[in-house]
Amino acid sequence: MIRSSVQAPGAVIMVRPHHFTVNTETAADNAFQANVAPDASHAKQAYAEHSRAAEVLRDHGVRVHVFEGDNPETPDCVFPNNWFSTHAGGHVAVYPMKAVNRRLERRQDILEMLKSDYRVQDIIDYSGLEADGLFLEGTGAMVLDHIERVAYAVESDRTNPIALERFCTHFNFEPMVFAAADSSGASIYHTNVLMCIGTGYALISTDMITDPARRAEVVARLEASGRDVIDLTDAQIAQFAGNAIELMGRDGPVLALSQTAHDALTGDQISRIQAHAKPVPLGIPTIEMAGGSVRCTIAGIHLTSRI
User: Fold this and answer.
1) Which SUPFAM superfamilies has this protein been placed in (predicted)?
2) Whole-structure pTM over 0.90, yes or no?
């Protein structure tokens, strides 16, 4: 039987890429993307990496729904967490995307599966905000504390304050917005590259929060929730150490992260994570060239199963 928790879903959706390539439409404000020439071998490698990652998660007892990303016009389809999210009580949100070709990733068949296999009360679609240039790229733009009902969000073109406020009002989250940049001064484009919130811990690069007062507020808020706040360095963030997600496996919570991210962590950091969840490294180096890692490839299902 699949277990679930408020913060760590026991089921996920993943989209396996058939035509993977680095998306040129998102390169301007995603410093994590690799500057590589198109290579036909990348699609085959990404497909294999994704297939293996889904298999490993299933081996740990996570229910994984895999959809095939076979539209050649959607190079970033492997990152479904940006276009929809699910929430306890049967609620689903559909988000407005900045890159035009990423809007093609929204799929009715995924929403229909959710309605068929899980208890869905309503779907709130914010995609119409795209016409006004207002974007909110899902759980990339926001890192959600489902327990304390806080939406942490980095200021960026992909996190419009009006769209964020609408989401938080509809879904009963308190927005906590802050500016963030790396050591070179480049702005962080998505919140989920610099922080991950588990049930009893949080991974975050506090140094990237540019305003010291706001930094202190964010840390205090996380600590007030009783979590162990594990600080990450700029170098670790560059290796995707913040782009992880806690899931509920057969034997308890697991932290899904990339092998790249796991290798960047110190022994002390891993020990502190292990006090709460089992780290499960997934090897996806080709997929990471597109500027996202394991968290981006997973859309958690915070819904009640009909099965």
Assistant:
1) Pentein
2) yes
- % the chain with pLDDT above 90: 89
Taking only the tens place, the pLDDT of each residue in 172-220 is: 999 999 999 999 999 999 999 999 999 999 999 999 999 999 999 999 9
Task: Let me know: does 286 contact 45? Beta carbons within 8 Å.
Answer: yes
| Euclidean distance between CA atoms 248 and 210, whole angstroms | 33
Question: How long, in residues, is the chain?
Answer: 307
CA 126 to chain centre: 18
Q: Which residues contact 29 (CB under 8 A, 6 or more apart)?
A: 156, 157, 158, 187, 189
* Phi, psi angle pair for 136, to nearest 5°: -150, 100
Task: Locate the domains of the chain by residue range.
Answer: 11-300
| 3-state secondary structure at position 6 | coil
* E strand map for 205-251: 228-231, 245-249
Residues of the chain with pLDDT under 50: 1-2, 23, 25-28, 30, 32-34, 37
Sign of the C-alpha dihedral computed for residues 82, 87, 93 and 96 taken in this order = negative
**144 touches 151 (CB < 8 A):** yes
Strands 142-145 and 201-204: unpaired
The pair of three-digit structure tokens given for residue 75, joined into one six-digit string: 């190079």
Strand ranges (E), the chain: 11-17, 63-69, 84-87, 91-94, 122-125, 142-145, 150-154, 174-178, 195-197, 201-204, 228-231, 245-249, 252-258, 278-282, 299-300
